[in-house]
Amino acid sequence: MNISSPLAGIHQELSLLAQQTKCHPARLIAVSKTRTEAEIEALIQQGQRDFGENRVQEALGKWPRLLAQYPEVRLRLIGPLQTNKVKYLSGLFHAVDSVDRLSLAEALARQTERSGYRPNVLVQVNTGEEEQKAGIAPQGLEGFLRDCVRLELDVQGLMCIPPQNESAAIHFAFLKKLCDDHGLKECSMGMSGDYACAAKLGATMVRVGTALFGARD
Ligand SMILES: *Cc1c(COP(=O)(O)O)cnc(C)c1O
């Protein structure tokens, strides 16, 4: 692996942080939205295996070929999902990290019944209780997780996107506590600007785009 590459640098940083926190290193999810197949393939060839896309339509355009060629690669949906797009997920997304409402949980359960496709699921929590932002309000989480159990979704953890204008650390610590309180092992938090902070506070996955691929024009 090329030690001077951003990928190697971030991995090194995550393993150093893991030594400090005495936890497993956070898994690096390479966020490849707006990136070309060639850019993605370059990262796969450097050993990257976990990728995130935020739009189903865009993923359909570039990932079927990549996944056919690199079957060990796993793709996660990290952006908003309309229920009418659920039928396109099978064979493409290993996980849906943005389950944020009952109608979507129900659509995923129906899709499992129809096709057997049963992705890993993270529940998105609106930790800042922002009106515009997707996600389950913290006070509704317990009830929503119960709905997910009833629907037999494979919920593995929680994810959040903290408010822009607040200290992210408070939200990361809060999400980690919610994971612990509910016995959920996966905690997806932290992006290019704050993944180190998230890793220190117990993220098991960090979602990094810009710091890996470079800034977009
Ligand atoms: C784009 C995106 C990221 C990565 O953002 P960067 O700042 O480019 O690292 C992480 N999470 C979600 C949900 C995103 O949409």
Summary?
The chain has 8 helices and 8 strands.
Written overview of the protein:
The protein is built from eight helices and eight strands. With 217 residues, it is an alpha/beta fold. It has an eight-stranded parallel beta sheet with strand order 7-6-5-4-3-2-1-8. Strand 1 (27-31), helix 2 (37-45) and strand 2 form a beta-alpha-beta unit. The longest helix is centred in the first third of the chain and has 16 residues, at 6-21. The relative contact order is 0.15. The site of pyridoxal-5'-phosphate has 13 residues, from strand 8 and helix 8.
Helical fraction equals: 40-55%
Could you tell me the mean pLDDT? 96
Class by helix and strand content? alpha/beta
Order of the strands making up the biggest sheet: 7-6-5-4-3-2-1-8
User: How many separate domains make up the residues?
Assistant: 1
Largest sheet properties: 8 strands, parallel
Given as residue ranges, the uncertain stretches (5+ residues, pLDDT < 50) are: none
Radius of gyration in whole Å, from Cα? 17 Å
Q: Briefly note the CATH topology name.
A: TIM Barrel
Bound molecules: pyridoxal-5'-phosphate
Task: Kindly estimate the percentage of residues that lie in beta strands according to DSSP.
Answer: 15-25%
Cα(first) to Cα(last) distance is 27 Å
Give me the CATH architecture, please. Alpha-Beta Barrel
**How many extended strands?**
8
- Count the helices. How many? 8
Shape: globular
- CATH C-level class is Alpha Beta
Q: What is the fourth-level CATH superfamily?
A: Alanine racemase
